[in-house]
């Protein structure tokens, strides 16, 4: 897209951008409805846990203390290439010792590429991101960013430790927590790991596309004015020629 | 245009301003503010300013749904999420407001 393009070319480009924008909007509304349903389940589970709790016990802010530590961290990437790239924002479900844990599939190696392809096939809602648009992903806390298979395995191990209880934030509420509270924790993790980073990424891309659409519209208006002036000139020139004849 | 890596590489935490059901764990300092009926607006504004301007390690800021139209920074990303008492309202969604503006409504 360039400011010197004709109005017809720019119209076509605006149409393409709008089409992409609408698909992003569709993804956004889908993710929003997912978030709403997960959150309603989360609130129901917290209410159930409080209902079944012992007298005087309320699972809420009273239990928070200094033991709280981050168990998930955010990864922000901004692809620099001009070609639209597909970054895996949906977390890969890793099954370790019979437990489903959350991890994030990242990396640029060939192996990661093939994994990405598999992920794309399995997950049709994988988001294609444009250059310069931030991608957000949430993963478990690890000391180094995993780039090889071994490091991925190490990361999974670290995640397993969190789930086993080393840093499980649920233990702040006691060791025998009701199942509804554990369900609520699962819902929270799902929200944070699966839905929120994807909403943030789609939102960032929508902002980028909005800027492009506005810019293209401005250029189109300029091109139309220029083309209009040229037509007027040619009409007036033609009139003069007629008079001369 | 792509943002420089320094703008986002250290942003690894989620921050939350919301009711007691919507909180996130902190690292060295609190990255959440529990808002209830007793919390005054100044405290909320101060926390918002701290998470968006002062701290450079926040990647995403979660806030219970309120009309925030003036926030345009790329980092941290601001997400409005519904709370227990205020379910999701598309009319107040800042993203959908932007969509309406783009289509001239």
From TrEMBL, chain A:
Superkingdom to which the source organism belongs: Eukaryota
Entry GO CC: Vma12-Vma22 assembly complex
Any one Gene Ontology molecular-function term assigned to this protein's record: unfolded protein binding
GO biological process: vacuolar proton-transporting V-type ATPase complex assembly
UniProt cross-references to PANTHER family, sorted A to Z: COILED-COIL DOMAIN-CONTAINING PROTEIN 115
Name of the protein in its database record: Vacuolar ATPase assembly protein VMA22
Source species of the chain: Hyphodiscus hymeniophilus
Automatic annotation (TrEMBL), chain B:
Biological classification of the source: Eukaryota, Fungi, Dikarya, Ascomycota, Pezizomycotina
Similarity field: Belongs to the V-ATPase F subunit family.
Single GO cellular component term: fungal-type vacuole membrane
SUPFAM superfamilies: AtpF-like
Main function: Subunit of the V1 complex of vacuolar(H+)-ATPase (V-ATPase), a multisubunit enzyme composed of a peripheral complex (V1) that hydrolyzes ATP and a membrane integral complex (V0) that translocates protons. V-ATPase is responsible for acidifying and maintaining the pH of intracellular compartments.
Alphabetical keyword list: Hydrogen ion transport, Ion transport, Transport
Protein name: V-type proton ATPase subunit F
Membrane topology annotation: Peripheral membrane protein
